Automatic annotation (TrEMBL), chains A, B:
Complex formation: Homodimer and heterodimers.
Subcellular location: Cell membrane
A Gene Ontology term for the protein's cellular component: plasma membrane
Lineage: Eukaryota, Viridiplantae, Streptophyta, Embryophyta, Tracheophyta
Domain Casparian strip membrane protein: 5-141
Pfam families found in the cross-reference section: CASP_dom
Signal sequence region: none
Family listed: Belongs to the Casparian strip membrane proteins (CASP) family.
InterPro entries given in the database record: CASP/CASPL, CASP_dom, CASPL
Transmembrane region(s): 52-71, 78-102, 132-151
Main localization of the protein described in the UniProt heading: membrane
Keywords, alphabetical: Cell membrane, Membrane, Transmembrane, Transmembrane helix
Protein name per UniProt: CASP-like protein
Length: 163, 163
């Protein structure tokens, strides 16, 4: 039973690393050149601070997730991992939310502020950003599940074991 | 000792409620009318989905924080509060990050996407948004401290009590 749980956790963590790594790579490689009214126009992730932050956040979470994979299962450090999981989940949430907010202006624009949507001109770039956001969101969900599971184990908030 | 800790937690939670409440109110009342090239132009928080989300997130966290204030100190529900604190901290992080990303485009613009800054036209509105973001960030910091403290108590990740 304990081994199955450990294996489940390991598989989830491996999936989280894959998700945040692909999010960082897909976002960092996203660029498209387009011509608008004769003017050449390039869309690149590093033109937008929120997307740069997204890549950095996903890269940090990937490196952390990768290192945790090599932690021996009997290590006392697992207790520290819960606290670090929480901090990095917050970092990931913040990166996704910022990128999603900007991505949504890119797709829908904001007529009140006079910001025009750009996805019509650079659809491939927008799809790539969307893919990165989805991958990162999958990573976030996995970390949220791991965290809630750790809290459940440590504190039993729903009183499933004791009454 | 236990009473001092309980009082500290209560004061922190009271401060968090005040912070998220003022963030929601300041953001929800932010609006400014301005004339640009003879055209009347109104900036309002509900013109921007990210700001609406920010207000909703802060309102939810305020109501939750307010209810938790009335939880008896001996209640077994405090264990559930840790899990709920985590979920609401993630919600708050996401609201702040999205609003900050849009606020930053409002202040600095994004020349690559052709989005012009609007804070020159509506400085009062921008200052109000900034105030709301700062208040909400204070609330977030308090919840992060409460969460790390709960994890520390439950799991002792830094091995301060046991070796």
């Amino acid at each position: 039973m304990a081994n199955t749980k450990r294996l489940c956790t390991l598989v989830l963590r491996l999936m989280a690393v894959a998700a945040t790594l692909s999010a960082a790579v897909v976002m960092a490689t996203s660029h498209e050149r387009s011509n608008v009214l004769g003017l050449s126009f390039e869309a690149k992730y590093n033109h937008t601070p929120a997307f740069r932050y997204f890549v950095i956040a996903n890269a940090i979470v990937t490196v952390y997730g990768f290192l945790v994979l090599f932690l021996p299962s009997k290590s006392q450090l697992w207790r520290l991992v819960v606290a670090l999981d929480m901090v990095l989940t917050i970092l990931l949430t913040s990166g996704i939310s910022a990128a999603l907010a900007i991505g949504s202006v890119g797709r829908h624009g904001n007529s009140y502020a006079g910001w025009l949507p750009i996805c019509g001109q650079v659809p491939k770039y927008c799809d790539q950003v969307k893919g990165a956001l989805i991958a990162s969101f999958v990573g976030l969900l996995i970390y949220a599940v791991l965290l809630l599971y750790a809290i459940h184990n440590a504190l039993d908030p729903l009183f499933l074991h004791k009454t």
